[in-house]
């Protein structure tokens, strides 16, 4: 037991002992006060600490977050059994041992059944409050943990995406300068033309590399310009064909994907005037394809592996659709998924985070409302019972508010934790999963 809990139980013992001493004790002596204090402490510590230990034990063995239904059933059974045993023991010690009001035989004859039943109900209310408090604390911990995890995922995905995009700038510049250095020796006139074209293309690289997606039309226009640049160096050794449908032009792909794949084609294949390399760019279903005849070049040094890997990773952060690679003895083909909408990694993550926060806030308000209702019930009903027994013990009217309000609290709890919310959340997940499987963005 924590020190804080011990102090709380001491204050409860003192408060109840003072109440019963001044309200129900005829002989107000020091001896009777300490007897009342001893009895109050017995009830407070045995019932309070007993229920607290049960709650702590179940929190370790069966946490609310891992098995809510199982925990609820075991909690109900355990608190019913434990409180019944503890109440019978406390009342026995009170009436038989301390007060010596009745004998053991009289106590178990049924004379004190109503008092036992009444005390058990009070104990169950206290126990329900303790278990509800434990559930609330674990829910807060779980919610905080989930929020932290989601923020870490969002930051990680954003950093990863930025890192991938930042590879494009030096990668393009490095490869272009390599081509330029080759042309300076081979053909200075072409090197000048290449330099002029490169400035135009590099402007596009700088503009588009910070975007998540671009239209196929923009990417094709850039690819054609880049192909002209390659033709400057390779002339008739490399040929290009573009067969993209007009209706696909307004759809989206990741930026600079064609440029990276064109580089791969040149880098990994031989291209000569007698054996030209043919590169075809076309749409096929929901894919933008780039295909070349296979003329594998022996690699002098190991490739950095930036091109295709970069494209695959960027697509994985934007969509569930995959990049496909086909390879045979005659050709090599890469299929890029074409998207109908233009999702944003950062925007989507922020929107998801905001929606999750709003849902969590609404959920917390619902739970807070339920626990407010439960606490009010646990405080007011015992007060009404005591008031009823003091003012008119022969007419027990407290049953009606206790029963009616109890049904309301139970219904409130079911609506907050059980039937309603679980059904809604399951249905929402089913709809979202179905939409994702059908590829609706």
UniProtKB/TrEMBL annotation:
Where does the sequence pass through the membrane? 7-24, 30-53, 73-94, 114-132, 370-391, 397-419
Pinpoint the Signal transduction histidine kinase internal region domain residues: 159-237
Q: What is its EC number?
A: 2.7.13.3
GO MF terms listed in the record are: phosphorelay sensor kinase activity
Its GO CC terms are:
membrane
Question: Signal peptide: which range, if any?
Answer: none
Pfam families, sorted: 2TM (PF13239), His_kinase (PF06580)
**Domain 2TM per the UniProt entry, residue ranges:** 359-432
Task: Give the UniProt keywords, A-Z.
Answer: Kinase, Membrane, Transferase, Transmembrane, Transmembrane helix
Provide the protein name.
Answer: Sensor histidine kinase YpdA
In which organism is this protein found? Answer: Chryseobacterium aquaeductus
């Amino acid at each position: 037991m924590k020190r804080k809990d011990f102090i709380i139980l001491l204050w409860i013992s003192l408060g109840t002992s003072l109440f019963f001493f001044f309200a129900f004790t005829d002989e107000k002596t020091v001896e009777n006060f300490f007897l009342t204090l001893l009895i109050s402490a017995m009830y407070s510590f045995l019932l309070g600490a007993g229920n607290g230990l049960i709650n702590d034990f179940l929190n370790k063995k069966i946490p609310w977050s891992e098995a809510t239904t199982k925990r609820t059933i075991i909690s109900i059974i355990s608190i019913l059994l434990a409180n019944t045993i503890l109440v019978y023991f406390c009342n026995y010690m009170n009436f038989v041992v301390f007060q010596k009001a009745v004998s053991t035989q009289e106590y178990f004859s049924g004379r004190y059944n109503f008092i036992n039943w009444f005390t058990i109900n009070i104990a169950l209310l206290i126990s329900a409050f303790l278990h509800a408090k434990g559930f609330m604390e674990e829910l807060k911990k779980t919610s905080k943990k989930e929020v932290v995890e989601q923020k870490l995922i969002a930051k990680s995905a954003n950093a990863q995406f930025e890192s991938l995009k930042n590879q494009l700038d030096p990668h393009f510049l490095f490869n272009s300068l390599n081509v330029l250095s080759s042309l300076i020796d081979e053909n200075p006139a072409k090197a000048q033309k290449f330099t002029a074209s490169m400035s135009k293309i590099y402007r596009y690289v700088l503009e588009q590399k910070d975007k998540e997606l671009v239209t196929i039309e923009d990417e094709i226009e850039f690819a054609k310009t880049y192909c002209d640049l390659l033709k400057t160096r390779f002339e008739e050794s490399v040929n290009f064909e573009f067969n993209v449908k007009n209706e696909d032009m307004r759809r989206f792909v990741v930026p600079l994907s064609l440029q990276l794949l064109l580089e791969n084609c040149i880098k990994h294949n031989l291209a000569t005037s007698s054996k030209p390399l043919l590169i075809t760019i076309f749409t096929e279903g929901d894919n933008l394809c780039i295909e070349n005849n296979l003329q594998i070049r022996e690699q002098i040094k190991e490739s950095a592996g930036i091109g295709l890997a970069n494209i695959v990773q960027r697509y994985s952060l934007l969509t569930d659709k995959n990049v496909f690679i086909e390879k045979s003895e005659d050709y090599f083909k890469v299929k890029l998924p074409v998207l109908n909408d233009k999702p944003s990694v950062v925007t989507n993550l922020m929107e998801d985070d905001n929606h999750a926060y709003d849902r969590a806030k609404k959920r917390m308000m619902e739970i807070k409302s339920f626990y407010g209702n439960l606490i009010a019930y646990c405080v007011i009903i015992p007060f009404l019972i005591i008031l009823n027994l003091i003012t008119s013990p022969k007419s027990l009217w407290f049953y009606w508010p206790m029963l009616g309000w109890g049904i309301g609290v139970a219904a409130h709890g079911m609506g907050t934790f059980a039937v309603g919310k679980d059904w809604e959340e399951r249905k929402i997940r089913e709809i979202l999963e179905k939409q994702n499987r059908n590829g609706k963005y």
